[in-house]
Design goal:
The chain is an alpha+beta fold. It contains 14 helices and 25 strands. Helix 3 crosses helix 10, helix 3 packs parallel to helix 11 and helix 11 runs antiparallel to helix 12.
Amino acid sequence: MLTKWGIVARGIVAGGVAVLVAAPGVAAAQPSFPSLPPDAPSISFPVPGTAQPPDINPAPPTSGRTRPPTAPPVTLPRSVNVQLKLERDGGLTVREQVVVQAKQTMTRVAPLRVGDRVFTVRNATTRGKGSVEVTPDALTIHAAEGANEIDYTVDGAVADLGDHLEVRWQVASGWDTKLLALRASLLTPKPGRDFVCLAGPAGSTDICDSALTDASGILRVVQSNLDKGDRVDVSAELPSGLVPANARFDSTGTSAFALTPLGGAGLGLVALLLVGGFVVLWTKRSRDVGALAADVGPVELIANNDGAVTFASPDGILPGQAGMVVDERADSHDLAATVVDLAVRNYLWVTEANDDWQIVRRNPADDALTDYERAVYVALLPAGTDSVTLSVLRASPPDLAAAKSALQDDAVKRGWFVRRPNSVGRLGLIGAAVIAVGVLGTVALAVAGGPALLGIAVVIGGIGLLVGARFVPVRSKAGVALAQQVRGVAAYLGGVTAEAVPTDRELVFSRSLPFALALGETERWLAGFGPVDPAGIQWFAAQDEAVSADQERFASRIAAFLGALDGALGRSGSHGQFSAR
């Protein structure tokens, strides 16, 4: 416990008294406690500026206790004399003599909570022009000009530390002016030991100017020039069982983070809101998952109108968009499907050359393309580049971050997604702002001694919003409905047969192929659709004429190209994180 109060100042000098620096003043009688034993040494203070009496022997007396002669004390403006006496019942009676400069006042607000130690004050009285007020949290002394005398009793000053007792009190604290001199004495039923006297701001470990014991074990403390608000903290060890221990400790009442009704109500309200919010999120996600897990029938990509085959995707969705709506990710499959779709729509041309595949610019990107399609086009063929091979793309992967970002933005803009899948959305940004406000509020309340748990409650609420934002379903209602239709398209691609498309087979094959690639149905689409006429495929050319003449070998080369393209684009990193939307 001594380490809890600070550094121990061991100033035990048998038979010694303090010698102080001179200061002029008017002599005044030092107040004394009643019922002192007739042979007890004087508890008045040595007079600053006087020489040590020559007849004081610094060694303990050899026979009987005698009262060592002392010079009369002096009073200085802005000085305080304090006498402490530990009673047999454990109460600490205190007498403070406060000398105030003419036409001025002095006020002391002494805290009754020091760390987790709780003191109480009773029987407070004054003599003179001053006044005293006691609350559960503080002892307040108002001293008027001249001499003021205040008496009170402190309970809670004696702590049981197992093998010994500790008596402790702050003989000075909370003064609203600088003290020129402070003198204090501590009288206990039996002499104490291991005295500690700390002076300075709260929490400092500076020892007092002087803390000595006389031949009878009475501690005498002298401190000069004590700054406004500083404290003098005195403690001593006593034999176990000497007096009843009455120290009280209350860790909940000493901290701004104590669980108060206001703080508890704030935490309870936040907990209730979080539980309610996560119930709502759980319900929404369950509906989303349930809708996507429901059985759907095939959704054809073609319509036969009086013998004319028309290609039509649900809601006009493009292959790259279809893949993202289903898995909520902008990945290499979606971008590879976009490259093939651009080739099918006559923007690019693919040719096999020397065991490699070359992508050639056929038509420039125009306003008919979406932002993400244009970003894919530019990433593959930057300005001044007319062609690129897959081997080059594998060796130097293009930066597809802009394309992936544009694909996510496209889904949000069309109302299929409520936010970008890789962002926390507006709810997450609100949560981050709430966390910042909560942290600042917690610091401000803690410094001010207010209910800092309210700030903690706000921080917890912000964290809940930030975490919950990650669980908010990405798809809107329209996005869920579209995802179900796209799942139907995947079912159609995986179950189509050659007999199902008797005419315009090459057109249906080419327009559907990017969807099969994006939805992971490439192998089943190629196997189920059957051979196609290479002459009808205008966007892909095999290197060997013999391959071009063989429908099965031609289809196998297309499958090889698709795998190589997906692998080359899959090596491209995102090159950074996307911003929140």
